[in-house]
């Protein structure tokens, strides 16, 4: 984890099951100072993981909202606002 309150999770080269398991684990372990889980899923090798992340976590009880980066290979899962 970085000191900025952002946890970056790289799920490149995982399958959807593995990626979901890793994201779920990080969500469960996230401390109060974490406000964003940044999921680096890529998109050039296919969109299965990206689509799964955006579908599965859109209505997750711990996720306030999704932020889709201008970089198509990143989705931010916002846990809470800074202010």
Per CATH, the architecture is 2-Layer Sandwich
**Overall form:** globular
Strand order of the largest sheet: 1-2-4-3
- Into which percentage range does the β-strand content fall? 15-25%
Distance between the termini: 21 Å
What low-confidence regions span 5 or more consecutive residues with pLDDT below 50?
none
CATH class: Alpha Beta
- How many discrete structural domains? 1
| CATH structural fold name | Ribosomal Protein S8, Chain: A, domain 1
User: Radius of gyration, Cα only, in angstroms?
Assistant: 12 Å
What does this structure look like?
The protein is an alpha+beta fold. It has a single domain, classed as Ribosomal Protein S8, Chain: A, domain 1 (2-Layer Sandwich). It has two helices and four strands. The chain has helices spanning 16-29, 48-56, and strands spanning 6-10, 36-40, 65-68, 74-78. Strands 1-2-4-3 form a four-stranded mixed β-sheet, covered by helices on one side. It is globular and about 35 Å long. The model has no long low-confidence stretch (mean pLDDT 90).
Write the layout of secondary structure elements.
Elements: E1 6-10, H1 16-29, E2 36-40, H2 48-56, E3 65-68, E4 74-78
Parallel strand pairs: 1-2
Antiparallel strand pairs: 2-4, 3-4
């Amino acid at each position: 984890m970085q000191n900025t309150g952002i946890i970056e999770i790289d799920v490149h080269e995982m399958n959807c099951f593995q990626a979901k398991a890793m994201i779920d684990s990080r969500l469960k372990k996230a401390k109060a100072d974490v406000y964003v889980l940044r999921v680096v899923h890529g998109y050039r090798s296919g969109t299965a993981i990206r689509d799964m992340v955006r579908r599965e976590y859109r209505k997750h009880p711990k996720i306030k909202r999704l932020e889709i980066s201008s970089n198509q290979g990143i989705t931010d899962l916002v846990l809470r606002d800074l202010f």
